[in-house]
Amino acid sequence: IKKIALDAKAPEVQDYRELVIMVIGETARADHFSLNGYARKTNPLLEKQAVVSFTDVDSCGTSTAHSVPCMFSIKRRQEFSTSEAKHEENALDVLKRAGVNVIWRDNNSSSKGVADRVEYQDFRSSKTNPICDPECRDVGMLSGLDKYIADHPTGDILIVLHQMGSHGPTYYQRYPK
Hints:
Blueprint lengths: L18 E6 L39 H8 L10 H4 L5 H7 L3 E6 L12 E4 L22 H6 L6 E6 L15
């Protein structure tokens, strides 16, 4: 594995900790989020929280297998190759090496190699996801997060939630009536 950003490190003295929850998913257009000014209230609960919504972002591709590894790569979209990405570190590797507690929770189709070297939890089954009927819901990935945070009392924390969201032709089945 080719190492990148070998000079990255966390601050030695810090009066506070950072907790970042990064939600990645499918078919979510920034201009259809009420967080970003869309008239329909699509994110009413999130609007009450301290949320950063990245509005000027382009996907590297239309498939999860290509776009997810590209998102965490040091390469620009035009330079990115999935075959090369398998042989080099990504942003999660750098953060982990710098001392950040990193966990990837997945309710989609895996991390596509991005989380191979960090803690990974699969929420696509009722064995781990408490909210399945029969398809497992993204909200189930929140289960136990408070314990994970309590179990990591030092250092910054990055939690990646890879949601199923509105992915695929049966997206309409993923929303309660």
